Request: fold
Amino acid sequence: MAVVLLKGVRKRFSGEEVLRGVDLSVSPGEILAVIGLSGAGKSTLLRLIAGLETPEAGEIHLYGKPATRGSQILLPPWERKIGFIFQNLALWEHLTVYEHLEFVNREPARIKELLSFFELWELRKKRPPELSGGQRQRLAIARALAQEPALLLLDEPFSNLDMVRKKKFRQELLRIRERRELTLIYVTHDPLDVKLLADRVAVIHEGVILQEGPLETLLAAPAHPIVRELLSF
Amino acid sequence: MRLWRLLARVYFLLVFLPPLGALFLAFGKTLSLTFLKDAIYLRALSNTFILALGATGLSVLLSLPLATLLAKSRFPLARLWAVLLAVPLLFLPYQTALAWSFILPAPVLKLLFSPWGVVFIFTISFFPLVFWPLYLSFLSIPREAEESGLLLAPPLKVFTRVTLPYAKPYLLGGAGLCFIFSFTEIGAPTYLGVPVIGSEILTRFAAFYDLQGALNASLPLAITGLLFFLLERPFVKRWEIAPRWRDPRGLLFESRPFFLLGGLFLGVTLLVAVFLPLSVLAFKAFSGDFWSVLTRAKSPLLRTFLYTGGAAILAGGVALVSQPLFKEREKDLWDTLALLAFFLPSVVLAVGLIYFWGRFPLVYSSWVLLLLGLLCHFGFLTQRLLREAWRRFDKGGLEAAYLAGRGFNAIFRRIILPPLSPWFGYALAIFFIFAANEMTLSSLLYPPGGATLAVTIYTLSVNNPLSVSAGLCLLNTLFILVVVSLLLCLLRPGADGSRSA
Reply:
């Protein structure tokens, strides 16, 4: 059973069609990278899966159950068990590290476990402006995991990082994935991210998925010149 | 450049230091607390606090659902409704009270002429002071901050735990403004027969010319203003979130019942605060001799335009020029003084101005005193707005211009002014609205035979048919509306980067 299943999903913004009938399936425990040019519809795809946007047409199924049918939301975002890491991390400046997790999960033992895992327990009384870039990132992941999601969505999580932090963050993600049965979908611009992290890659262009499959397959037989261009180092 | 800097410093010294210094010295030297034994005074004092607290509380209760409806859902034509909700700021509270005294039938009218009625009038007059900061702060919350909450918890929890804490400084700031404005307003309570401390001080000064008595009586107001001044920094500026208009914005509430109930609430609010008072006043005004009202209003209207327009341009101009000229520390100093003058109730500030400038007959008996009063009391608005604009201004372009070897005047005209002009427009408009509708300060400071329109409305209401007052009020609103619209059109606010304010 697919964790995420999209059938003919369409989305329009101010009259312009951003997604034009997307079909996609993601299996449990899989890491799927979504790559494409700016404005191709990558972030919209993640937001639709999370329930933060409503499609005009098509169906979205999560864990075998319908979540969105046409423009009708059947499962609201907070019931989808999805962790989302935004590009700007979207931390709450007024809450402490501890309160970020407490907002999601009220079990003190679980909060302590997560904060210790991400080396944030000592910083639990601090607010985001008092944290370093790396600590902020770890907090964003810890918050996303606090609700025990089965699916983690990442919207260009590496875009604002230097090389050293990028490497650390990638390792962090692989560590999490090993520890729990998590399915990951992440949007990126960087072919290196695809190579180092993804089991499968989907190339999105002008609102449609041009090609999907393992990186090697796509590089060996690209369906469109843009596929080679996006995936070449 | 040096000349401009010197002129700006002289301006700040002349405007802010004399009244504040005089008040400080006067309270220290000649204070008498005998007024605390005066039952009439104490009643007026308690009325003042109760009315201001009541109006502030109700304004928060009114603004919170309205701002949520218009900023946190896809309610149709939200921006239009938000602009309409600012319209009560164009009315004098006295004018709203007058309109409602025409609207209500005799059995209920008794309730209007009571403290309850004053709280009602204050609420529908001043709630935009709470609504607008709240609305802007709701729009400025990063969309992802709310969305990351929505993936974890239902909308109501996200609203209370994420949205409201972000907006808290603005909610507190708006509530503070509402309190201060209700605290010092005298027109509506006087018309509705409820004694307040402002009118008590005005009587002591204007009727008995007892400046010392007025100064003593204004002590509790001064302390309250000082308290607000001291609370501003820790509470209102705590997280330094600059309201920026974000689009697309985070949305929380989408259900049909929310839209229906919210729409009904919005409709009733607009009806009560805007449409009913305005149409009733228009009806009353045109049922009397409107042309004679026009003739009577001509001179006060012109004077209001000159005093408040002149003050707005001067305050805005100096605030604008001083941004590139002053260091941050100096700006902090002027900002602090301006804030103190803004939070001091207008009646107290007027007493301070008279206390100092009374020794200079040329200033005291001319329009200069009123101009100084307006600059001192409302200068903070232009100062804060233009300082915020300067913070957002790209300094890289400025450095490039300096490196190109151009003088300050050319750089100011060609590089600084164009991107800041929309902010300048906002600053002038906001200053003008508050200054033109100001009644207390003007009543105490206007030169002989030089009353503004707001003061004329107040004085003529005593022994003239109510249709005259209605006509004058209507003119006042139209006049402010026309000037503000012209200002906003000329200086084109709304361009990118200037839409917050």
